[in-house]
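Milestone 3.1: sequence recovery, worked example.
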C-alpha cells in the first residue's frame, strides 16, 4: 500500500503556492504557512514567458491567470534619441504575456483551494531542520516528509539550514506600479526607454491598466523616491509625459538583490523562489524560473522515493539554467545602468552591435525557450 507523503511549506507567495499545487497534483498532502494575516499581492504586472506559461499550464492555472492579459507581439529597447537598440518579435511557440500579479496570485489561490491544500495565515515559520521539522512562532513544530522554505530573499529558514552562500546588494533598484490605460496606448508592444542611468519600462497589461517599471541607481535619490518624483522623471524622459502624468502615489521601490545559495536542499528540507535564486527583474524570469523549478521538484520526487536523493538530482539538473539567467540578468542591468551620461552614445553603438549576435540572443533567451520538466 502506498503511503501518502506530506509537505510543510513556509511562505504563501508565488513560489510557495506553486510548489503546493505541484505536490498536491502528485497526491501529497500539503500545508502552507503564511506570516501575514491575509493573502495579498502588490499592484504591478508580471512577465510570463513561454517557459513560465508552460509550467503554469501544467499547474492548471494558466488560463485563469492570463484571462485579462495582453499577448505581447514585440519588445524593443530605445535609447535617449529614440533609436531602437534591440528588438524581439514573438510567435505562437515563443510567447510573452503580461497579466497583473494579482490575477496570477488569485489563480494560484483558487487552485490550492480546489486541491484541498491547507493554507494557514498568521503562521510565521521561525525554524526548519534537515530532518523534516518546521517550527512555527509560538513553539509549535510540524513534522513532514518534506519541508520547504519559500520565504523570500532574506529567508531566515535558508540560513537556519546553513544554505546561504552570499547575498549581493546590487547598484540599482525598481519602482513598480500600474497606471490607467488609454485608447492611444500601444496594445501589444513592450518598450524599455533608456536615458543615462535611468530606464522606464512600459508594458501593456490589460484593457484597463498598464504596468510601469522605473529603474535607477541606488544613489539616485530623486529617482527612487516614492511617491514618484514626476518632475524628475519627466526631465529624463520629456517625450513620455503622457505616461508619467498617470503615475499615482502608489508603487514600491525595491533594491535589486542576488541570492547565491550553497545548495538548494539539505536532507529533506529545500528552498524555492527568491529564497533560492533572488535576482533583479531585468530579464523578467524570476517568477518563471520559480514555477518551472517547483514543477520539476515535484516531478523528481515522483521519480525517486528517497527524498534527499530526489532533491539532489533536482538541483543538479535544474540549477545550471537558473544560475545562467542570474548572471545574464545582472549583466543586462550593469550594461543598462552603469554607463555615465556622457558615454550614452557609445552604449547605443555597443548594444546595436552586440544584440545582433545570435549567441548573445541565445544566452538572453535561454530560459524563455526552455521546456520545463513536467510539461507536455
Amino acid at each position: 500500500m502506498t503511503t501518502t507523503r506530506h509537505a510543510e511549506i513556509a511562505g504563501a507567495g508565488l513560489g510557495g503556492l506553486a510548489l503546493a499545487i505541484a505536490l498536491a497534483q502528485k497526491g501529497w498532502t500539503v500545508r502552507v504557512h503564511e506570516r501575514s494575516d491575509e493573502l495579498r499581492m502588490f499592484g504591478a504586472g508580471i512577465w510570463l514567458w513561454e517557459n513560465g506559461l508552460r509550467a503554469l499550464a501544467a499547474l492548471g492555472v494558466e488560463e485563469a491567470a492570463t484571462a485579462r492579459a495582453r499577448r505581447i507581439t514585440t519588445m524593443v529597447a530605445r535609447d535617449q534619441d529614440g533609436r531602437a537598440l534591440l528588438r524581439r518579435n514573438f510567435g505562437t511557440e515563443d510567447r510573452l504575456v503580461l497579466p497583473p500579479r494579482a490575477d496570477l496570485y488569485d489563480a494560484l489561490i483558487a487552485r490550492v483551494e480546489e486541491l484541498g491544500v491547507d493554507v494557514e495565515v498568521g503562521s510565521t515559520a521561525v525554524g526548519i531542520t534537515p530532518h523534516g521539522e518546521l517550527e512555527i512562532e509560538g513553539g509549535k513544530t510540524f513534522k513532514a516528509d518534506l519541508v520547504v522554505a519559500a520565504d523570500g530573499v532574506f529567508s531566515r529558514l535558508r540560513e537556519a539550514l546553513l544554505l546561504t552562500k552570499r547575498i549581493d546588494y546590487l547598484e540599482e533598484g525598481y519602482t513598480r506600479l500600474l497606471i490607467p490605460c488609454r485608447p492611444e496606448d500601444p496594445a501589444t508592444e513592450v518598450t524599455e526607454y533608456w536615458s543615462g542611468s535611468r530606464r522606464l519600462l512600459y508594458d501593456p497589461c490589460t484593457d484597463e491598466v498598464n504596468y510601469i517599471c522605473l529603474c535607477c541607481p541606488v544613489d539616485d535619490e530623486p529617482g527612487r523616491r516614492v511617491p514618484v518624483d514626476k518632475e524628475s522623471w519627466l526631465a529624463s524622459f520629456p517625450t513620455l509625459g503622457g505616461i508619467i502624468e498617470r503615475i499615482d502615489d502608489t508603487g514600491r521601490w525595491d533594491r535589486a538583490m542576488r541570492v547565491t545559495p550553497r545548495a538548494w536542499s539539505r536532507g529533506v528540507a529545500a528552498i524555492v523562489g527568491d529564497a533560492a535564486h533572488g535576482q533583479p527583474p531585468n530579464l523578467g524570469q524570476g517568477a518563471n524560473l520559480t514555477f518551472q523549478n517547483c514543477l520539476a521538484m515535484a516531478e523528481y520526487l515522483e521519480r525517486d522515493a528517497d527524498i534527499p536523493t530526489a532533491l539532489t538530482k533536482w538541483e543538479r539538473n535544474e540549477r545550471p539554467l537558473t544560475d545562467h539567467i542570474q548572471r545574464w540578468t545582472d549583466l543586462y542591468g550593469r550594461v543598462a545602468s552603469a554607463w555615465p551620461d556622457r558615454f550614452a552614445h557609445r552604449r547605443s553603438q555597443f548594444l546595436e552591435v552586440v544584440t545582433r549576435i545570435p549567441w548573445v540572443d541565445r544566452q538572453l533567451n535561454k530560459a524563455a525557450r526552455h521546456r520545463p520538466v513536467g510539461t507536455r
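The radius of gyration is 21 Å. The domain at 6-169+256-364 is CATH 3.50.50.60 (FAD/NAD(P)-binding domain).
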